[in-house]
């Protein structure tokens, strides 16, 4: 961990490789197995969060309109050929955090719509015009 991270009070999370090689392999596998049935496949935030006007269900993201901003929930749904096939534990977190990593890496070139990230699966973003570029 760098001295800059230490001075900011941040702790470094061990990598999966480090956990598996540290004698905690069985603990890691047990945690993963326990989570296999805890997939985020459906969301219904409009029922519990005041101010959410509508829900749009995409292949893997549920998007809630709150007037000035959007709440994007990245689910664990797996899609192929424009169909939902199954759900994979932690997939939504990985997708959301990958997007956030890229937004952070490119912020010096172009601003992003990201306002906050209240959960590993959730991004709150400004409404904006889409720049029609896709990376596959």
Automatic annotation (TrEMBL):
Pathway named in the protein's UniProt entry: Purine metabolism; IMP biosynthesis via de novo pathway; 5-amino-1-(5-phospho-D-ribosyl)imidazole-4-carboxamide from 5-amino-1-(5-phospho-D-ribosyl)imidazole-4-carboxylate: step 1/2
GO molecular function terms attached to this record: ATP binding; phosphoribosylaminoimidazolesuccinocarboxamide synthase activity
Organism for this UniProt entry: Gossypium trilobum
UniProt domain SAICAR synthetase/ADE2 N-terminal: residue ranges: 56-136
Protein name, as recorded: phosphoribosylaminoimidazolesuccinocarboxamide synthase
Name of the top EC class for this enzyme: ligase
TM region positions: none
Keyword Manganese: no
